[in-house]
Amino acid sequence: MRPIELDFKQVSVAEKYRVLPQDFKDCFWTDAEQKLKEFKKGFLESCLEAEANEVAGASWHERTKDRVAYRNGYRPRKNLKVHGFGDINNFRIPRLKGVVYESKILVKYQRRSIKFDYDILKMYVTQPSTRGIKRIVKQLFGSSVSHTTISTVLQKTQEKLNEWRNKKLTKVYEALVLDGLYIRLRTIPTTFKKMPINGRKANRDSQAVILAVMGITEQGTKEIIGFKICRSESESDWFGLLNDLLERGLKLKQDGIIISDGMKSIASAVDSLFTYHKKQLCAFHFIHGVSECIKNDIKTRKEAQQDISMVCNSSTNAKTAEKMFNNLINVWKHRHPRFAKYVRTNFPATLTYFSFPAEKHEAYRTSNYLERTFKEFNRKTYDVGVFPNVYSAERIVFLLILERNLATTGENPFYEAI
Predict the structure, then answer these.
(1) C-alpha angle 308/309/311, rounded to 5°?
(2) Strand positions, DSSP E, 185-334
């Protein structure tokens, strides 16, 4: 193909591109990619040469009093995976004689850069399947990674998870939101199997639950501050999680509020550790709890839920809400006494949020913020299905929590720090 002269002074780049031969257009990016591969290989080898000269105190054949070592040829390296570059293949590493030489650029036995490993972690947040990550890495970098490589990278997050769990809590929170999400594990620890669920041994040996605590500051910032994977939502498990947070320095304002779904185990644990703080029963769970007292009659159940929902959504203060609930109880006490008793017993606990300013009512009325986070977990862990073990589930949940906290607090995860 004859040389092409491009003069961009008179005609725009777009117009010149249209007149280029088709074969030039087809091979342009292929040639550019090949040249880039050659450049990055040459750049790495040049950097290693400069480092070797610095360690030796002199370059090749240079006579100087500062020399402390001599060059001893090269050793080959087949492959290195680097962020933004992909594979660098068949490059040379200098060898030195007379001194122990360990490169700062290439860590011993390293086959991937740290940033490349962190890229895999970021991909795992949005694509939690090793098959999907392999496909994406192949498309982006032109190289492939094995299932073992991805698993090894994920295992490195365990150290960061342990650091996060021991990190001191310095913020003062105005509200805590408590909830749990059930998951399935392929391998259940022996300690889990011995634990009862609802007073009896569980039939579903693969069941486990993620207990999570979200903190809301006075300014409205929300972040998940702790989680724990347990056999069930027992009082001892909730007590252990909340006690760990207190030992890490958790501070709840004196007039702070704790929002939960009303489970007895949560209520008992909260009463033990936060005796004098306000408690709020999630209005959403209060409405859906009607299904426990009206099980068979679907039409009546929907009507009852609509009545409760109308009261919850239309009330502007505690006094009005109490009056409307009492009227609702009078209407239903003869038609369905069990439902009327359910409302009479639970509605006072759903009105605690009225003690806060109106702009905070939406945030403190329900546990929906944490529920939405759990829905996000469900969407992103759909491909996983059944987690291999507790540690695998913890690592994935930890990565998702970091991404969620990034969206609400702006705090960068550890893999975004470099």
Answers:
(1) 65
(2) 196-197, 200-201, 207-217, 222-230, 251-260, 278-281
